[in-house]
Specification:
With 539 residues, the chain is mainly alpha-helical. It has helices at 5-8, 36-39, 43-50, 75-80, 100-106, 114-139, 146-171, 192-206, 227-239, 241-244, 264-277, 317-321, 324-328, 342-348, 359-362, 432-445, 451-460, 470-481, 487-493, 524-529, and strands spanning 86-87, 300-304, 339-340, 363-364, 366-367, 369-370, 373-374, 384-385, 406-407, 427-431. The protein is globular.
Length: 539
């Protein structure tokens, strides 16, 4: 059992939402809508059809654009394949897709980039659903008591704040929509510092009413927005204060008043200490976080529940990375796409005496083995991945199908369905190792020694201690969190995102050095429908 999450997949979606990309107002009655009176008759059905259904959208069964992780051409891809962590090379006729993946890696995306538009639409879709859920809770408040209603309100507001955090991270200045029927023509953007403060305030105001239970244990709170999950989001907000709270003037983390008691760096430490006190800790092995049955892992703070017999959420990232025959060896269909960059190989010390011990659990490299035996191809040769020959366009390379170290991090579910995308490994969004690394960084940025927290993570990995310098912390975040969707955000915070790296020269002119590519353009389709919205600088 995975709490009450498994029941959400069966919910009749009796109302829909039109995004900031569809109609004159941000609401719609679908043709197959079921009247509210039929499905909302008591407290249980009110929760299921307002708060509960929102959890359907954190992951997604869709192939493109939906979910915080799991699909293609959406939020995860913008955070990963725009960075120096991973790349989807063009492999002849495969993975060109109109130049999409090259645009992401080269930072040459345009206002009509599909992944950018998909992500905008998805994030606002969930926000509009959150707004509608809050209105339903008010409309049917007679069905439950005040205390319960307040807790449900807090759960929805905190989820909405998570999505606004994602939006302002990616797009900077965005509209803040708090009602489902706001006319599209009247919507204006708020400056990024205002959106940032909105997220902080929404989470802090929700905290007293959120359930104190951990979201990583198989209870009714499994996979839900609880107080510890909100603490983690607040940590991320505080850690990125110097980026997200800045506008015309720069902000310093040790001067920014995150709340009445703490500056930004103090807030990171405060919420990290609360998470530690609530019982989260490092698992014995990093791999425990990603096992087929990773429910109840002491390290995982927030996951997307997966259950192939009861849920429809898919996870395509690993099969997207594996060679066709590699996937076929497990009975699935690998699509031979994503792999590690040369920068990532250097970070892990691949091929050297100092190779990080986490490399072999994060990547398939060199001779491919399945059940301990080398994988034989149809021509009798052995499948070998060649990490160091990766480049953006492999179309004329002899290693067109085998260049690059491939994603391994999650254990293979041998009983997965739909080519291994419907599996039982819950998708890990937040975990305690990240908490420790955020605390190390906050200490470093405040002039203190964060080595204690950095080296807790390294000790678990079997690696020697290091000083908590900015360079070492950024490197450790890749070593520990590779493939988990944080690299773009980390590079921006450390000032490395706009620099050139292998196969990605810095964009010409002064634009990228000024940082314009650290936010994405507002999609052209959105601008065409609302002249009140302003495009981000540089696009």
């Amino acid at each position: 059992m995975k709490g009450t999450i498994q029941s959400y997949a069966a919910i009749v979606l009796w109302y829909g939402a039109v995004l900031l990309c569809g109609c004159s107002v941000l609401t719609e009655e679908p043709k197959d809508a079921v009247p509210e009176e039929v499905v909302i008759t008591d407290a249980a059905s009110l929760y299921t059809n307002s708060v509960g259904l929102l959890y359907n959208y954190i992951g997604s069964p869709e192939e493109f654009g939906e979910g915080l992780q799991g699909s293609y051409r959406g939020y995860y891809d913008l955070q990963t394949f725009t960075s120096d962590e991973a790349i989807i090379p063009t492999r002849g006729g495969d993975w060109y897709d109109g130049g999409l993946w090259q645009q992401l890696y080269l930072h040459t995306w345009s206002e009509d980039n599909q992944a950018v538009e998909n992500t905008w639409n998805y994030l606002y879709k969930v926000i509009v659903l959150c707004n509608r859920s809050l209105e339903l809770l008010d409309d049917y408040n007679r069905l439950t008591d005040t205390t319960t209603l307040r807790a449900w309100h807090a759960e929805v507001r905190a989820l909405r704040a998570l999505y606004y955090t994602c939006l302002t991270d990616l797009f900077g200045h965005v509209p803040v929509v708090t009602a489902s029927d706001m006319p599209f023509s009247s919507i204006r953007q708020r400056r990024r510092p205002e959106v940032y403060r909105f997220c902080i305030d929404e989470l802090r105001e929700s905290l007293p009413y959120l359930a104190a239970e951990r979201s990583n244990t198989e209870t009714t709170y499994y996979g839900r927005m609880t107080r510890p999950v909100a603490w983690f989001v607040l940590m991320k907000l505080a850690l990125n204060a110097e980026i997200w709270a800045s506008d015309s003037t720069s902000v310093k983390g040790d001067e920014y008043r995150f709340d009445g008691e703490h500056n930004a760096w103090e807030a990171v430490m405060h919420y990290g200490e609360l998470l530690t006190a609530s019982g989260y800790s490092l698992a014995e092995r990093q791999s425990d976080c990603f096992e087929v049955h990773n429910e109840n892992c002491v390290e995982n703070i927030f996951t997307i529940p997966m259950d192939k017999s009861r849920l429809r959420t898919r996870w395509r990232n690993q099969m997207r990375s594996m060679h066709y025959q590699h996937g076929a060896a497990y009975g699935y269909a690998g699509t031979n796409g994503s792999c590690a960059t040369k920068e990532t190989l250097r970070t892990f010390g691949y091929g050297t005496a100092e190779e990080d011990l986490r490399f072999r659990s994060a990547f398939y490299a060199d001779t491919v083995r399945v059940n301990g035996q080398p994988l034989q191809l149809a021509d009798g040769s052995t499948l070998v991945y060649h990490p160091e020959v990766v480049e953006l366009d492999l179309s004329h390379s002899p290693y067109i199908a085998t260049a690059g170290a491939r994603m391994q991090k999650y254990a293979i579910d041998p009983t997965g369905l739909f080519d291994g995308t419907l599996r039982d490994n819950d998708i890990v969004l937040f975990r305690y190792a990240d908490v420790l690394l955020m605390m190390a960084e906050a200490e470093m940025r405040s002039g203190k020694d964060g080595s204690k927290y950095l080296n807790e993570v390294r000790r678990r990995a079997g690696m020697p201690a290091r000083e908590a310098t900015a360079e070492n912390i950024l490197e450790e975040r890749k070593l520990e969190l590779v493939w988990e969707g944080w690299r773009r955000q980390d590079m921006i915070r450390f000032g490395t995102f706009t620099r050139g790296y292998s196969d990605r020269p810095q964009l010409p002119g002064e634009g990228e050095t000024g940082g314009f590519s650290t936010v994405f353009p507002i999609p052209l389709s959105i601008l065409d429908m609302n002249p009140l919205l302003e495009q981000n600088e540089g696009y």
